[in-house]
Write a structure and sequence with these properties.
alpha/beta; six-stranded mixed sheet; four-stranded antiparallel sheet; about 25% strand; binds adenosine-5'-triphosphate; binds magnesium ion
Length: about 260
């Protein structure tokens, strides 16, 4: 469904501070796959997601969606295909708008021009039902401004927003990283349920090795812009955190010891 061919992105090319954020990345994601992406700080995980949605323009390689080359398509043309939660919780929702306005905007994404936030009675009922299912008690607070909600509540709304328009691909960039463990567990449970119910093809970045192993059907490990390890099916199910760390060392990388990967 989504194919990345030799994707390469260099920041500050030719300068002393040159960074190879993506180097010859090859990845094929099939319909219904749930891929977890693990990697150290600066491995290129966020850049990978941004390249897929068009926020970062790779200097080499191609991105194919259902066989069509979308490498040069602008962000707005891709918006209807991808549902994304950004790494910073403040980037995925609009703090000044109410819960229902945020949801209304998301439900129309990719279908109408501009930011339409009109909330019809039918939409309102749909939102109320969707919010009720999350179990956060937000169904009575549709007119509350986003900025007044807790981080977990905001990421839950962001998750509903990202999935409302039934995207071809759901892209999650460490959407649990800013949450306390209990809330993270709750939001992850909801993520898994939505992915299953709507059969969403999903790419989820995490720096938590246990989460990368526990969730999804495939695992991809990145380091310094490259994919250094992949596992799927039974091989993924048999992975352990210790085993993953070993894989990392086997790939010739010895600088994992002081990385937050081990702290999570
Ligand atoms: N817009 C940019 N301009 C310059 N350098 C960038 C830019 N975006 C990313 N980089 C650099 O590219 C590399 C990869 O960054 P990226 O954000 O993709 O890493 P990451 O794997 O998401 O890391 P983290 O776990 O910290 O979120 C890093 O060295 C980063 O500093
Ligand atoms: Mg990142």
């Amino acid at each position: 469904m989504l194919t990345l061919e030799s994707l390469t992105k260099t920041f500050f090319a030719g300068e002393a501070s040159e960074v190879r954020a993506l180097e010859d990345v090859e990845l094929t994601i099939g319909d219904g796959d749930f891929v977890t992406v693990i990697g150290s700080n600066g491995a290129g995980k966020s850049t990978l997601l941004k390249a897929i949605v068009g926020l970062v323009r790779p200097e080499a390689g191609r991105i194919l969606l259902d066989g069509r080359d979308i490498t040069s398509d602008p962000v707005h043309r891709r918006a209807g295909w991808f549902g994304r939660i950004a790494q910073d919780p403040n980037d995925s929702t609009c703090a000044g708008m109410t819960i229902e306005e945020n949801l209304a905007m998301a439900s129309k994404r990719g279908r109408v021009r501009g930011l339409r936030r009109a909330v019809t009675p039918v939409l309102r009922e749909n939102f109320r039902a969707a919010l009720k299912e999350t179990g956060l008690g937000l169904e009575g607070r549709l007119e509350t401004r986003m900025g007044l909600l807790s981080g977990g509540q905001r990421q839950t709304i962001a998750l509903l927003m990202a999935t409302l328009a039934n995207p071809r691909l759901l892209l999650l960039d460490e959407h649990l990283a800013a949450l306390d463990p209990k809330t993270a567990e709750l939001v992850m449970g909801l993520t898994d349920r939505l992915v299953r119910e709507r059969r969403l093809t999903t790419l989820m970045i995490t720096h938590n090795m246990a989460d990368a192993i526990r969730w999804g059907s495939r695992l991809v490990m990145m380091h310094r812009g490259r994919i250094i390890f992949e596992a799927a099916g039974a091989a993924k199910a048999a992975l352990t955190v210790e085993g993953l760390v070993r894989k990392f060392h086997e790939a010739g990388h010895r600088d994992l010891a002081d990385d937050r990967l081990l702290l999570s």
